[in-house]
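wait is this the right file?? whatever heres the structure
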């Protein structure tokens, strides 16, 4: 049987990353490449934008690097999958040309529109979601909105450039603000509330596992990959990271310790939080992906690093070593880490607070440990909320930059009283996209094939398991 390789692309805020996998190999990633991205500078306060064509240029460069790798035979590529940053807004005209830069998930300049939509619709529309960006464009740049023929999410735009077709899938679409998560379809009443003309500008919604299309001749020549191969539906970065972390069945929970912190897991049914603190996303493999997102995670540890050891390249390890010598609970020092406001709990205007300071309480090890304890407590309270909503938690997989911290790993295991494993592959979004491409490809002959059957054996885990001992917070 001829070798079949699969290409996974992850379009993030900070850069584009790509991998090629050989499903017959262990580990299956045989090539990787990346290209950094920047935000557009000089924008008003709260605005965060990138140009979608810059994403595409970076994708082209990354894929060309991958195809030039000695381990990759371009003719063996059998499918492509795309992961993308969620909630962004791409506006294209009738010729599929981008009308203006995309407002991103972290753009808060549309807060007034989000508040107005929340009141109008009767349920929370977070400022980060796409809905407020559409309303903002219609109000502030009506000439651009009039020219708009299609509204896409970031990964949808890359799929458009790959295939020539506009599509959307349930996972990423469930972060727009106009999606009916329970029924996995557009909520037409909300679509009309966002803007009366939005419905005519939305792309076709794919069925579960349905390919977004096939690589067109333009993309094939530019990227150096075969024309006509399958482009899987793709999904948001959290949805693809779930696949790339092995969270393709109930009970496997992923916690990501990045600039913000997220916790998510796949379920076979929708999980609806009556207070809206746990986002009721769909997964990108036919299930659902309840997700907790806190705004304060490694951005807090970076603040402490900059405060105590700003020019020390080993500052985080130095702080961790000092924190390891501090008794849990830090002698009563408590660090509420809401320095950027907070989404969960819903305190957008909150500030960070340190209490219980006595002599020696401002020592770097004490403050760093108190911060880790505060972040952990907030994340784990969200996990506890998930459990109360019926989410199973058998094992926790830890990803993101903060997962490298040995002290923090143990603290989380002790707090949740569950064992922790770490995936070997750091680029879980790109890996998930490649695995989804294999799934979509093989569903052509086996329509009932589950994504878990593809992913579960191809997500390598580190052999060391962090077992819980006692609560540290």
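ok assuming it is, sequence goes like this
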């Amino acid at each position: 049987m001829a070798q079949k390789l699969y290409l996974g692309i992850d379009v993030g805020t900070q850069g584009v990353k790509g991998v090629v996998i050989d499903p017959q190999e262990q580990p299956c990633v045989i090539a990787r490449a990346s290209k950094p991205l920047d935000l557009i500078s000089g924008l008003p306060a709260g605005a965060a934008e990138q140009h979608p064509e810059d994403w595409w240029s970076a994708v082209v460069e990354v894929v060309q690097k991958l195809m030039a790798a000695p381990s990759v035979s371009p003719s063996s590529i059998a499918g492509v999958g795309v992961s993308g940053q969620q909630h962004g807004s791409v506006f294209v005209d009738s010729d599929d040309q981008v009308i203006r830069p995309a407002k991103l998930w972290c753009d808060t300049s549309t807060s007034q529109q989000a508040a107005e939509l929340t009141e109008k619709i009767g349920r929370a529309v977070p400022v980060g979601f796409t809905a407020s960006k559409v309303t903002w464009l219609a109000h502030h740049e009506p000439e651009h909105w009039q020219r708009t023929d299609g509204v896409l999410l970031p990964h949808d735009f890359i799929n458009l450039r790959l295939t020539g077709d506009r599509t959307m899938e349930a996972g990423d679409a469930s972060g727009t603000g106009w999606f009916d998560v329970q029924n996995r379809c557009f909520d037409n009443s909300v679509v009309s509330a966002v803007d009366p003309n939005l419905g005519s500008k939305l792309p076709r919604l794919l069925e579960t596992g349905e390919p977004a299309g096939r690589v067109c001749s333009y993309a094939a020549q530019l990227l150096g990959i075969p024309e006509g191969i399958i482009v899987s539906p793709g999904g948001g970065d959290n949805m693809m990271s779930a696949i790339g972390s092995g969270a393709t069945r109930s009970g496997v929970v992923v916690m990501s310790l990045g600039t913000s912190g997220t916790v998510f897991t796949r379920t076979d049914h929708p999980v609806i939080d009556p207070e809206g603190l746990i986002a009721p996303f769909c997964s990108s493999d036919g299930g659902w992906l309840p997700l907790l997102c806190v705004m304060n995670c490694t951005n807090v540890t970076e603040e402490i690093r900059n405060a105590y050891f700003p020019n020390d390249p080993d500052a985080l390890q130095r702080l961790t070593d000092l924190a390891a010598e501090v008794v849990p609970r830090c002698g009563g020092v408590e660090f509420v880490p809401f320095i950027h406001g907070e989404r969960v709990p819903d305190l957008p205007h909150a500030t960070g607070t340190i209490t219980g300071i006595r002599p020696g309480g401002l020592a770097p090890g004490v403050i760093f440990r108190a911060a880790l304890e505060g972040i952990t407590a907030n994340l784990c309270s969200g996990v506890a909320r998930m459990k109360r909503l019926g989410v199973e938690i058998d094992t926790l997989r830890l990803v993101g930059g903060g997962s490298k911290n040995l002290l923090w790993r143990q603290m989380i295991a002790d707090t949740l009283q569950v064992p922790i494993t770490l995936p070997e592959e750091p680029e879980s979004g790109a890996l998930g996209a490649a695995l989804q491409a294999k799934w979509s490809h093989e569903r052509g002959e086996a329509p009932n094939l589950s994504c878990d059957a593809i992913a579960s054996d191809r997500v390598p885990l580190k052999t060391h398991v962090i077992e819980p001992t006692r609560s540290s917070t």
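The chain has two domains: 5-235, 247-422+443-473. so i think its the right one actually
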